[in-house]
Structure formats: C-alpha cells, structure tokens
Amino acid sequence: MPDHVPAPPDDELRRTWHGVRRELRAEVPDLTFHIWLEPLELAARRGGHLFVRAPDHIRTWVEERYLPLLAGATRKVLGNDAQVEIVDGEWALEADDDQHAHAAPPIAGPPGDESFLNPKYTFEQFVIGDGNRLAHGAALAVAEQPGQTYNPLFIQGPPGLGKTHLLHAIGNYVQAYGGGLTVRYATAEMFTTQYVTASRGGGMPAFHERFRHADVLLIDDVQFLAEKMRTEEEFFHTFNALYEAGSQLVLTSDRPPGELDALEQRLRERFACGLIAELEPPSIDVRLAILRTRARLDALHGVPDETLAEIARHVTSSVRALEGALIRVVAYASLRGQTPTPELAMGLLHKLYPRPADAPPSLADIQSATAEALGVSAEDLLAHDRRPHLVFARQVAMYLARELTNESLPAIGKQFGGRNHSTVMHAHRRIKANLESDANTARAVDGVRGQLRRPS
C-alpha cells in the first residue's frame, strides 16, 4: 500500500457502508438481514479494507456463516481487491494507522445523492386487506401515472401499518417502469438535515437540484417538519415548485393534515388538496396472511402455521410489531435449537407484549382464548365451516366479543371472517338465551372467560 493514503471523507464512508448494506439486503431474506446483518456497523476503512464491528452475541456466527457474503457485497462496492475483517466492540484504529485509515462516523442517515429505496418494499409484497385497500390502490395508481392522479397523495395512519412500504413501492415501481423518471425519497428528518447542511455549507443549488427537479418526491413522516420554521419554509417552496411543474408528491404522516396543528396552515392546506388515504390496523385474517407472506419470502419452512396463527392472535397493534414478533420467535427458537411451536410463541409473546391487567380483551384475545378453551383453531373461527361444534365455538366467541368489548356489530363481524352484523347479533342472542338453560353453553362461556383471566 502506498504511503499517506488519503482518508476518505465522511460522506464517502457513509456511502460505502450504505452500498454494502444494500447489497446484503438484496442477497438474503429480510429475517436473516434483521437478525444477523442489520446490527453490524462500519468501524473503519483502510483503503479497500473494511473493519466491521459485530456485537459480541452474534460475532462468531457472523464470521462463520456470513463473512463470505459480506466480503462479496464489499467487493461489489469497492472493487475486486476489497477485504473485510470482523472486529469486536473494543477494537479501535492504532495511532500509527491514522494516516492510512479513517474511522467511520456514526451512520445517521444516507448521503444526499441516492434514492435509498428498499428493493424489497414492492406492491407484490404488500398484503391487501380492508384497512389498507384504498391506500394501496391509490399508491399503485400514482406509481403507474405519476403526476396525473391523486396529486398530492397523503397516506396517514398509526406507525407500523405500511406507510413506508407503500412509499418505497411507489419509488421502486417508477424506477423500474417509469422510463427514466427521477425519484427522490427522504424522511422529514433527512430533508431537514440535508437542508441545514446545505444552507451552512453553500450547497443550496445542489439541494434545490435534488429536491425541486424530481419527477416523483416521496417524503416520509412529514409530521416531523413541525416547528422547524426555516425547513417548513423551504419545504413549502419545494412543494409549490414540484406541484406547479406537474411532478408527483407523496407524503406520509401519523395523522391527517387537519390534525398537524404544529405545522403552518399553508402547508396543511397543500397536504389536504389531494387524496388522503388512511391505513387501519389489520384484522386477524390479514395479520395471518402477512405472516404467511413473510414466512414464504424469508424461506421459513420450519415455522408451523399454528405458530403463525398464535402470533397473529397475540400481536394486534401493527404490521411492524407483527413482523418483529415473528423475528423474535424464530430467532429465540433458532438460538436455542428448538422448534418454533405455538407454545413457545405464546410463552415468549406473553412476556414481550403483556396486556395490562385492567385492559379489556381485544377481539384477537377472545378468539385466541376461545380456540384454546374449546379445542378449535383460530382459522376455524374465521372459516365458513358449518359443522355444529365449530358454529357453537364461533357463536360463543361472538357473544363474548359483544359482551366484553366496545366493538360494534359490523366490526366484530369483520374480524370473524367478514360476516355481517346480523350474524353477530344472532350469535349473541342465541348464546345469551341458552346460558341459563344449557349447562354445556354455560361451561363453554365460563371456560373462555377463565382462559381470558389467565395471567400473561
């Protein structure tokens, strides 16, 4: 190696590591990436030699199983002579190496000249249900005809329901089929950081070129623009420039525009001038479909469907929590050499997602308790199977759903395989009428109530 190899600037180091991570992500299933590769950090670079820091609990496994993959990804980014070394948390550059190498800065965000779309966030991988059908359809229409329909498109909903997935799916679709249209993706925090850096360092022309000349601009979590006056001003002018040029704008937020009180009124008005598409939490059948899709895409052939059903019953808050629970269950079982059984999932998830003692049960809780107490499966409660014992179990679950939750009749029916409100009403009346006269009905209801009272 020649003397005095110039130290690569911070942006180059960030770009190098993001490039390596992108190559890794494209090569392995999401589950593998999240468990074994996402925790890795770039410690330093000396020419074409990367030093990658791995946490203690996975370092040996990464070295044995994934070092060739990591080396291959690095060669794709830095060239055929590039090398990789796995180091521990205590490792640091030697003092006499400073002129030849450069420690990597914290990777706080991507450099400004790349789209950074996740190639695995596509429309094909998005599981459609009643709670996201409008948002999915609008996103696909925008991707197929940017700037011609639903401009701007504002996708809103609680965290973890798929807003970012749809945003990346639009970008990936346009990059693949848009005939060379320019896509720019950024979170609100990335937009702010890049704006502040550009305004302090004389880089505003390049910043404007990047954001005001895009054919499709995708901005995630616009609620975080609030109370950043100069950034709001810049984004207002960026929005106007793109809108007047006929470029497509797609924005996401955890709230609708009218509830973003901390944002300037003129921005809220512009956000609301197109289509607002809401994402709602998925029903249990959609949650199960999401898990089955993840298991198929990540080649998790050893996970029983009953385990997926247990996860779907237990984790109700978001798609992100659902996929995170699957990762935890599989990783827990793998590290201990066990099979990811429904019992293992139940024990682990009760610890990770405990329900407050005074909280009313959810519909998923009731379905899970009914399945456990009456010896049926969660799928049986959702299916249109008319065998008497399944009809009875389904009616018991619907009765308790009506008694123990504040859900409406249509909402309950929707969670039981898309049944209508009259079916739920009939089930409630029948079980209620039989409680005093039929001991079997009383035992079944008490059994499910007892299952619901079991400590998490």
Please outline what is shown here:
The chain is built from 20 helices and nine strands. Helix content is 53%, strand content 9%. β1 and β2 (49-53) form a beta hairpin.
How do the helices and strands line up, and which of them pair or pack?
Layout: H1 10-27, H2 30-37, E1 41-46, E2 49-53, H3 56-65, H4 67-78, E3 83-87, E4 102-103, H5 133-144, E5 153-156, H6 163-177, E6 183-187, H7 188-201, H8 204-212, E7 216-220, H9 229-244, E8 248-253, H10 265-271, E9 275-278, H11 284-297, H12 305-314, H13 319-335, H14 342-352, H15 363-374, H16 378-382, H17 388-404, H18 409-415, H19 421-434, H20 439-453
Parallel strand pairs: 2-3, 5-8, 5-9, 6-7, 7-8
Antiparallel strand pairs: 1-2, 1-4
Please characterize this protein's 3D structure.
The chain is α/β, with parallel strands linked by helices and 456 residues long. It has four domains: 10-103, GMP Synthetase, Chain A, domain 3 (2-Layer Sandwich); 133-278, P-loop containing nucleotide triphosphate hydrolases (Rossmann fold); 300-352, no CATH class; 363-453, DnaA protein, C-terminal DNA-binding domain (Chromosomal Replication Initiator Protein Dnaa, Chain: A, Orthogonal Bundle), CATH 1.10.1750. It contains 20 helices and nine strands. The chain has helices at 10-27, 30-37, 56-65, 67-78, 133-144, 163-177, 188-201, 204-212, 229-244, 265-271, 284-297, 305-314, 319-335, 342-352, 363-374, 378-382, 388-404, 409-415, 421-434, 439-453, and strands at 41-46, 49-53, 83-87, 102-103, 153-156, 183-187, 216-220, 248-253, 275-278. Strand 7, helix 9 and strand 8 form a beta-alpha-beta unit. The protein starts with 9 loop residues before the first helix and ends with a helix. The model is unreliable at 1-8, 95-100 and 105-114 (pLDDT under 50).
